[in-house]
Amino acid sequence: MNQAVGTVKLRQPYVLFLGEETNPLKAKTAFGLRDWAAESCIAQTRLAGGTIELGLPEREPAAAAAAGARSLVIGVTPPGGRIPAHWARMLVAAADAGLDIVSGLHTPLESIPGLAQAAARAGVQLVDVRKPPAELPRATGQRRSGKRVAMVGTDCALGKKYTALALAKAMRAQGLNADFRATGQTGIMIAGAGIAVDAVIADFIAGAAECISPANAADHWDVIEGQGSLFHPAYAGVTLGLLHGSQPDALILCHDPSRTRIVSWPEYPVPGLKDAAQLYEQTARLTNPAARLVGVSLNTSSLDEAAAEQALVRAERELGVPAFDPLRTRLDMAVASIVGP
Amino acid sequence: MNQAVGTVKLRQPYVLFLGEETNPLKAKTAFGLRDWAAESCIAQTRLAGGTIELGLPEREPAAAAAAGARSLVIGVTPPGGRIPAHWARMLVAAADAGLDIVSGLHTPLESIPGLAQAAARAGVQLVDVRKPPAELPRATGQRRSGKRVAMVGTDCALGKKYTALALAKAMRAQGLNADFRATGQTGIMIAGAGIAVDAVIADFIAGAAECISPANAADHWDVIEGQGSLFHPAYAGVTLGLLHGSQPDALILCHDPSRTRIVSWPEYPVPGLKDAAQLYEQTARLTNPAARLVGVSLNTSSLDEAAAEQALVRAERELGVPAFDPLRTRLDMAVASIVGP
């Protein structure tokens, strides 16, 4: 994988830390890594009482390090999204064993008693993946080589990351030169690099996006995870800066046909597909005049087979581009539409 | 003035610190404060060699404090935008005299030797005006009482702040209940409150904008300083978040008719007035469906009288709203257009 310049960078492979978690819903990060970064996950490690099973060899940090692991990744979300005090011993032991510690939780790793000292002793990194790199540039706006496809959405949390991962996988399976590019914390853990764009200083959003998908070979595709929505009353600024810095040639509109209101902002309706496509194309063309909608990804998880099929046909007819659900349908048409004739 | 909740807050009146500056171009902050916050500027203070003359009484910090000053504001920009080491003695003396210290320069005030201790001793604040408040909320998107007019632009640095200040002054002169609301550092010093929205974490841009113009009396107008431009390849995310959080009823498009390229991004053209008006209205309507363009402010400083007049007539004809140059023309028509019938 061509590493992006100026992004957070993780050392792979990983041992996935599962604490004493028993609820699989609190282990979404671990399952996501196992599913989407399978070749980078070589072990799991639990505390007494933990029951999450990823199907990976169970190894103490030292044994995982001996087996080749470079980082211990916290794969579960404890109550409040914070690191419990009693994890400190295990985390210090992992650092002492030569493992980087990687966390997407709220507690800064530096603040855990003894951990910074252990990391300094062992020469390992403590990586809070939500924390952006210290020195981000302002966006240059200059066109760069390589091709880019960006996920954009009618709301947050409706499948933009999943769509990007599935498309990157399908493109590589067809022998295309393609990489998933991460713009949020789980994506960064999967890709091993990226920037949580919603956490950067406002002046640098587009600059961070330029770092996430730097110049590349002319035939290379960056498949870029989206964030937020241009139709979201709180987060549209993040979405627009990410779009401008990404300079996408192609846009995939992600949508959940069962959703009529913005999640947690119920006064705001989800936009119509045509309105959404129009505004995304118009704004993307500032930094790439050739930007065009090439597909629509529907999250049909709440629909039965027949209703899902109807929704896909309807979306395809409305927008004139291939519609797909990465969990349900083949992606050949979408990939062909991205790559073009 | 109805103080905004959750913004940076400055204590007025000010003594303006001019260092040893001799170049008026490096004292724009001081001149701006003298011109736009005249009632809040009661003294100036210089170091040996300084020649900037604001026409204010020259007073040492202690004498300024005795005369009623509450804050010493750094009003000049030294080389590199940093505070020279030899200013420390004067700044410490000012803190010891009971003055808050206010700076828009890059050097954190906390880092100046002895200053944090002096501030703690004297119980005064050190205010880096570019630094946002620690706890900003995410935007709620909920409509709030009061009326708002937002400055939007075809580029950065073409008169959005000046236009907002001039309009707020003209509205108050007509007896309207109106306040300038600051979104950048000089504006914050003038208003005594505000948030530098380009310096907040990306997720909180619109939330910061909601704090800058909180709920107010039904007949009250916030006149909101703009930042960046939706047509700027680096900063459009800031502009969009600010627009959404501001929920403007009325938009003033600010433009420099002599500018054809985005400053420092010469590959990017300045948009046409109609295109700009269309995108600002469309995006503003997400959070305020009644948002509409009500005026166009032209910076005609590079044109002679006849050319300026032509440009104003042309802009008015193109957009169908009153055109004005706050440095050259009366603002009655613009104010009438903002307030409506």
UniProtKB/TrEMBL annotation, chains A, B:
InterPro entries: DgcN-like (IPR011669), DgcN-like_C (IPR035086), DgcN-like_N (IPR035402), P-loop_NTPase (IPR027417). Pfam families: DUF1611 (PF07755), DUF1611_N (PF17396). Residues 53-132 form the D-glutamate N-acetyltransferase-like N-terminal domain. Residues 139-330 form the D-glutamate N-acetyltransferase-like C-terminal domain. This is Uncharacterized conserved protein, NAD-dependent epimerase/dehydratase family.
